[in-house]
Amino acid sequence: MIQSRSNQEYKQWQRYLSHPETTEHPWIPIESSKQIHELAYKYPIQLLLFSDVSGNLAQPLLSRSLNFRCLSVNLMERLSNVRSPQQLIAFFEKPIWAWKDLTPWVLYLEQLQDPGNLGTLLRTANATGIFSVASSNKSVSFFNEKVIRASAGALFSVPFLENLTLDDLKKHGYNICAATLKEGPSLFEAVFKTPQAFVLGNEGAGLTKPALAIADTCLHVPMHEHSESLNVAVTGSLIAYEILRQKTLNE
User: Fold this and answer.
1) Which tens digit of pLDDT belongs to each residue from 190-230?
2) Around 107, how many Cα atoms within 13 Å sit in the side-chain half-sphere?
């Protein structure tokens, strides 16, 4: 059992958990026991950390772990990023997606900053089963530790690509539709054709002028006249489910 904070491996794990988005760290940390067990059926655990001395929680996972360590409860609590540590932290290899993995429907995030919004949009894309997610430069990393938690494991099932331009999507045949406050037809009246990418803007600044200029079409989500705007994750989720609704009706 590792009990010292000065242990070199422990210090390395602290760095991994604090900044999983760095290239130094090839793994994703998962702290939800339920998610760990679900993912372990599909992917090998690169490293399993546990503080359950009895081994009841860790035992079923050991055969799926390439490496494992037992930590004191105190060290595990210091290491954890969640308020109520579950005595388990599992590291999985970061998923790698390619252009061929993108679905015909894409949510494109321009300079999105809030990790909670990105995590929510990943979960929405996963729930619809038909959406991928892409982001521009200056957007929060898909491997940000808050994104990992907020996405609830969706990173492993939703294809995503980072640092793309709208030109990249156009070159791959995607129609570009900008989600605006008032321009274009209502979401519920717009007509879409695949492959289609919906552009969502920065939380504060909205869409940039170049993004609006390159868009093939625009749409807006209808709102009450006294409402100024919608949260970007809500907007993206409404769009995704409207597409799913239309797709289901046409099948």
Assistant:
1) 888 899 999 999 888 889 999 999 999 999 998 887 777 78
2) 36
